[in-house]
Write a structure and sequence with these properties.
Blueprint: E1 11-12, E2 20-21, E3 24-30, E4 36-41, E5 46-47, E6 50-53, E7 56-57, E8 60-67, E9 69-73, E10 79-81, E11 86-89, E12 95-99, E13 105-111, E14 114-115, E15 118-121, H1 127-131
Antiparallel strand pairs: 1-3, 2-5, 3-4, 4-13, 6-15, 7-14, 8-11, 8-13, 9-10, 9-12
Length: 134
């Protein structure tokens, strides 16, 4: 596969595959001070609705680097993402993100430090809801 940006695509994201529709790829960039990974989504790939949890602090930052994608918070309209966009996701916000149906998409995911951080994975984004996005 041709690289989409200066960051490597990485390997198939098998560890989290059950929380994604279609194929994603993961390349860890750093795990020393904070966890930072390059995440690549094939066209139509998206993760399930999920919430980043923490007793204090936490959340996630996405830095979009290639292709086009979507980000949506529960109860809000979806936001189209392109290279250079930054998304700040506070702890406790139900959301999903992924590629548009006709474009590869890549973002850097930064885990915001906090106490007792985790993820609560929820239901998939339905094909019906996803197909309405343009």
């Amino acid at each position: 596969m041709k690289e989409l940006s200066v960051f490597p695509t990485g390997e198939k994201n098998t560890a989290y595959a059950k929380y994604f529709i279609k194929q994603s790829y993961l390349y860890p960039l750093s795990t020393e001070q904070v966890h930072i990974s390059n995440v690549t989504f094939e066209p139509g790939c998206r993760n399930n609705w999920h919430v980043h949890t923490a007793k204090k602090g936490g959340g996630q930052i996405l830095i979009c680097t290639a292709g086009e994608g979507w980000y949506q918070e529960w109860g809000q309209p979806a936001r189209r993402l392109k290279p250079g966009d930054v998304v700040n996701i506070p702890t406790g916000v139900k959301h999903w993100h992924g590629a548009t149906k006709d474009s590869w998409f890549q973002h850097i995911a930064i885990a915001v430090p906090g106490e007792e951080c985790g993820n609560e994975w929820l239901e998939p984004v339905s094909d019906e809801d996803y197909s309405k996005l343009d």
